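2024-03-11 09:14:02 INFO worker-7 job=invfold-0412 stage=load source=structure_tokens
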């Protein structure tokens, strides 16, 4: 049994929150650069180049890539041979988010009550935490600050099994088409298939944590990812909605077993500020 102190978790989360908001991952910067080189639309190419300039300046100056510093989504892979000491595991994560957003002067965007008072919590907590129990004695923490504009474009469809793969394709492509420029393209499209309604959406969100463009391990799903990306980029929405062939940088699919009567499909769209950082304790 390995022990990990809550103080170490808080420190790790705080660092990840700030790093994610200041530094765009290398795979995303590379994809944006490749898209700029391949973009036929002059305006679309200019937009992509400006997005890259913005990311490089943010990293250099240690300033937020985007003014929307997001709702903090934390994915935890909790080794079954790990024991948390020194306090509450949940509170250790929340304190890390709190420290990062207050000390790092990141915009706080969380309201305590979503319907009535809508009073800002003023420290960007609570974070949304997804925990998976895995084998081993390590703790993997992945922080994904999720902007409101792209999150608002999320969608769920409870398809009939008879709609099959064509139904999945139609729903995913139409969701991106309806979103238009709202999620700040070029986007990354996370797709979750199977399970229950909540599981499908959780899978879609988790799909955004995969290294950009990494194909699904299943050849069939990898081919589906390629086809969906091609169809989405043929929509012509383009960078920031100004037209062009770069509407999405990647489509990532995750799937799970499902009931014989159902075919749930969740779509979670990530904006071009695809912020993501992870650490292993």
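2024-03-11 09:14:09 INFO worker-7 stage=emit residues=281
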């Amino acid at each position: 049994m390995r022990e990990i102190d809550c103080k170490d978790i808080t420190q790790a989360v705080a660092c990840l929150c700030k790093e994610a908001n200041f530094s765009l991952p290398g795979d995303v910067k590379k994809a944006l650069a490749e898209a700029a080189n391949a973009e036929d639309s002059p305006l679309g190419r200019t937009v992509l180049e400006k997005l890259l300039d913005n990311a490089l300046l943010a990293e250099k100056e240690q300033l937020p890539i985007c003014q929307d510093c997001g709702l903090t989504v934390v994915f935890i892979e909790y080794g079954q041979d790990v024991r948390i000491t020194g306090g509450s595991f949940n509170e250790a994560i929340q304190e890390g988010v709190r420290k990062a957003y207050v000390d790092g002067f990141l915009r706080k965007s969380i309201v305590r009550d979503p319907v009535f008072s809508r009073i800002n919590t003023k420290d960007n907590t609570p974070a949304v935490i997804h925990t998976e129990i895995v084998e081993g004695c390590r703790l993997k923490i992945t922080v994904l600050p999720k902007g409101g504009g792209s999150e608002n474009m999320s969608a769920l469809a409870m398809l009939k099994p008879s709609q099959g793969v064509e139904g999945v394709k139609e729903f995913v492509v139409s969701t991106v088409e309806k979103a238009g420029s709202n999620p700040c393209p070029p986007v990354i499209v996370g797709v979750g298939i199977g399970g229950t309604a909540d599981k499908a959406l959780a899978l879609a969100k988790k799909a955004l944590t995969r290294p950009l463009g990494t194909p699904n391990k299943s050849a069939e799903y990898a081919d589906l990812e390629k086809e969906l990306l091609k169809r989405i980029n043929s929509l012509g929405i383009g960078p920031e909605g100004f037209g062009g062939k770069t509407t999405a940088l990647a489509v990532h699919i995750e799937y799970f077993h499902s009931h014989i009567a159902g075919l749930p499909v969740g779509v979670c769209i990530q904006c071009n500020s695809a912020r993501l950082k992870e650490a292993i304790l």
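2024-03-11 09:14:09 INFO worker-7 stage=report msg="The chain has a mean pLDDT of 97."
2024-03-11 09:14:10 INFO worker-7 job finished
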